Amino acid sequence: MIDNLEPITIRAIELRRISLPLVTPFRTSFGTDNSRDILLVRVETDSHVGWGECVSGNDPLYSSEYVEGSQHVMVHHLIPRLFAFNSARMSAHDVAHILEPVKDHRMAKAALEAAVLDAQLRANNVSLASHLGSVNELIPSGVSVGIANSIDELVTTVGGYLDEGYARIKLKIEPGWDIEPVRVIRQTFGDHIPLQVDANTAFTRHDGPLLAQLDPFNLLLIEQPLPEDDVTGHALIAKQVGTPICLDESIVSSLAAVDAIERGACSIINIKAGRVGGYLEAVRIHDVCRERGIPVWCGGMLETGIGRAMNLALAGLPNFTITGDVSASERFWKKDIVTDPIRLENGQVRLPKGSGAAVHIDQSFLNDVSTSAITLRP
Predict the structure, then answer these.
(1) Domain membership of residue 55 as a residue range
(2) Which of 172, 334, 335, 353 is catalytic?
(3) Residues 301-330: pLDDT tens digits?
(4) Are 107 and 154 contained in the same domain?
(5) Is 335 a catalytic residue?
(6) Is 109 a catalytic residue?
(7) Which residue among 156, 185, 238, 372 sits deepest, i.e. has the most Cβ atoms within 10 Å of its Cβ?
(8) Is 2 part of a structural domain of the chain?
């Protein structure tokens, strides 16, 4: 990935909030989402527009970031820094360095970088996929299944997704909803179904013997069983559990990835661009994992078609060898804000073609679901 793009000058940045109801409630160990308050970033140059999507949640539960806080830090700290640099023209590859003095707020930074990158790529007539280094146009599609109200409900839900053709099932688990749901799904649908679980930090380093009870079910991986700051605990769990341990929340940068790998805390990594500060850092994590023989996969954060298309471009890189959460738009949204939603094709989803992220906004529907919009200028 080489920055050989012509730089751009930002004329305006719009921060737009939209409210979208989920098709069905989505429950994890953090809580239940019924709808999403989503912050979109629109970057305007002299000739092109670029879009980014902030994946921070309604509340600071998955991480310390949340939508209201992300907008505040963009308005008062991040965007002023971009505008101060902007007089010299800029590249998306400059964004992380410009914003580095502001600690953390990776999801807010990632959304700004994505919008600048999308605008710059469109101005240069280059696709996001080719710029990141994608080698695949069709991406196997997995689906994330939230914690259900009952085992019977879970079986019905999983059966429906398998009927739709999804290539892999991920079950959310938490203490008390762990061994039995997995046992029933394996028993009902068979060992040939690619299956993994995600604990979203819900267990402790004392739960190794419990998690080891998942070993007979031939899972692809156990994702983030312990709190994100307990890397040593994950290394201890990895010695007690035969199923591969995958880290998600713990991996916030390429440096964190190298540290976790070298400490034996994981043998697989889930890469989410928003969590690590942007798609460019996500590629660096992909690269350090590839160098060390650690497979990766692309996680999802209930994105609209904007973030979903960008995730597809990332998931096409060569070391994304494990099926990720790049599901169809209709998995979460009755109607998406893009004119061509991501659709499932025989268990796969196809990269959109065109410059940038190659998505087009349904402006009428976007206006209908918008709750606020502010425009900032240099």
Answers:
(1) 12-125+363-376
(2) 172
(3) 999 999 999 999 999 999 999 999 988 888
(4) no
(5) no
(6) no
(7) 185
(8) no
